[in-house]
Design brief:
The protein is an alpha+beta fold and 433 residues long. It has two domains: 4-9 and 52-254 and 422-432, no CATH class; 258-396, no CATH class. Helix content is 33%, strand content 23%. The chain is built from 15 helices and 21 strands. It has helices at 33-42, 48-51, 64-77, 129-142, 159-167, 191-201, 212-229, 269-276, 294-305, 330-335, 341-344, 347-359, 367-370, 377-385, 400-408; strands at residues 4-5, 10-12, 81-83, 90-98, 101-113, 121-122, 144-145, 149-153, 173-176, 182-185, 206-210, 240-247, 254-256, 259-262, 280-286, 312-317, 320-326, 371-374, 391-394, 419-421, 431-432. Helix 9 packs across helix 14. The protein is globular.
């Protein structure tokens, strides 16, 4: 049974922070050094100081995690951050534009009891070691959750959102985020509404959309705390995690592709193409000098790989790119015989199993050394042109039904297979255990 609970959230105090927009932050995992600098200068109380503080050469006992704890406690003492006086849930709405169309995504902050076995909470991606260690260090210092994990639930009639809409009026926080999107939260502490939501979710299965690392980190932290304190109470605070729940059928939810950036000394494009021809139909496309613009190139590639039922992706080099189309699905039957049909049919599975692993020698053991990721189409081009990476691979987006099928089968897609839009804004609500 999925178990959720209201909580006393911590929020910025609008009485003492006049410009709420200026203290908000992007999620920690998309903050570059340049963006970090800008956020530091934007406001002394910007949330980045808590989730991704600066690192210094002499960092030892005094490091980004201990400083985050210091800032967090100081801001609470100064009433920059304030606790809610009563447990509740926090409805969340994001209004944004995509491809010229207005979209609105609805969700709500709530506490979720951790499912260590992943029976009720389904993960569809494997996690990487470095982000887990980083988030665990932060959680150890703060004994709390600063950013939510986003999970999907199934509610075809949208009963939960309808009930929530009946109970809200003026938002508690209404800000414009780093992304230009409008972010709003409310608070509901009405017990009848909360009980209605709890009962609706009783028999549900939840699917992690964004935050696989943070979810596994929460489990690791709970195990640590049980051993440290000897507290085996299944309802101990450390067994819960702040999350945002979103209806899988919400019309404001979008999935975008995550492109791969490759850096490996022994990669030779001619050798790659020669070996790949056994598995793929390959089309080479030269870039005309007049079209040598990152946006034009990425747009052209996206049009080339657009498809309804084929496995297609593009490998970009300077001045030209290759479009790969899988010849026969039976190839995946041979290379991944232990996987489900859905998993074998994913573009990211085809890419990782055949091209990266079988041809380039990039596998699970060395993946973090040679592959980075970007959700920005133009970056996938510019990073190669600048020499920062050798090649990039531009992908199509994973479909929501594919995510569900893979998670239902208890399987994991390759890392960074999905990118959900809109991204959550960081700094709206926090949870102290």
């Amino acid at each position: 049974m999925v178990e959720v609970a209201p909580f006393k959230g911590i929020t910025y105090n609008k009485k003492n922070v006049k410009d709420i927009d200026s203290v908000m932050s992007p999620p920690y995992d998309i903050i570059s050094e340049e963006m970090q600098d800008k956020l530091y200068k934007k406001n002394d109380y910007n949330f980045v100081k808590l989730i991704l503080g600066k690192q210094f050469q002499d960092d030892n006992a005094n490091n980004r995690y201990t400083r985050a704890k210091k800032f967090f406690n100081e801001w609470i003492k100064k009433d920059i951050l304030v606790h809610s006086d009563k447990p509740g849930i926090y409805p969340y709405e994001i209004e944004y534009m995509q491809n010229g169309k207005k979209k609105i995504m609805n969700g709500f902050f709530i506490l979720l009891k951790l499912d260590k076995e992943y029976k009720l909470v389904k993960a569809h991606e494997r996690t990487l070691s470095k982000p887990k260690e980083d988030r665990l260090n932060l959680m150890r210092e703060l004994n709390g959750n600063l950013e939510p994990i986003q999970l999907l639930y199934i509610d075809e009639k949208d009963d939960i959102n309808i009930k929530i809409k009946e109970k809200i009026n003026s938002p508690y926080i209404d800000v414009t985020g780093y992304d230009g999107f409008n972010h709003k939260i409310w608070k509901i502490d009405d017990e009848k509404t909360i009980n209605f939501i709890k009962e609706k979710l009783d028999d549900e299965i939840l699917f992690i959309a964004d935050g696989h690392h943070r979810y596994q980190t929460a489990i690791n932290y709970a195990d640590e705390m049980e051993e440290k304190t000897g507290d085996k109470n299944e309802y101990a605070p450390f067994r819960y995690r702040m999350v945002i729940l979103v209806n899988m059928f919400d019309k404001g939810l979008s999935i975008l592709p995550t492109h791969r950036l490759l850096k490996k000394k022994d990669l030779d494009i001619n050798d790659i193409i020669k070996k790949s021809e056994k598995y793929f139909d390959i089309k080479k496309i030269e870039i005309e000098p007049k079209n040598n613009n990152h946006k034009i190139i990425s747009g052209s590639i996206k049009n080339e790989i657009k498809t309804e039922n084929e496995n297609k992706f593009a490998l970009y080099c300077k001045k030209f790119y290759y479009v790969f189309t899988l010849k026969n699905q039976k190839i995946m039957d041979e290379l991944a015989s232990d996987k489900s049909e859905t998993w074998k049919g994913l573009d990211v599975s085809v890419l990782h199993k055949i091209l990266l692993e079988n041809i380039m020698g990039i596998n699970q053991d060395n993946l973090e050394d040679h592959v980075k990721y970007t959700r920005d189409d133009d970056e996938a081009i510019s990073f190669v042109d600048s020499g920062k990476f050798d090649f990039s691979i531009l992908m199509n987006a994973t479909k929501i039904e594919e995510l569900k099928s893979v998670a239902d089968a208890g399987e994991h897609m390759p890392q960074k297979s999905t990118y959900f839009l809109p991204k959550m804004l960081s700094g709206l609500v926090m949870y102290k255990m």
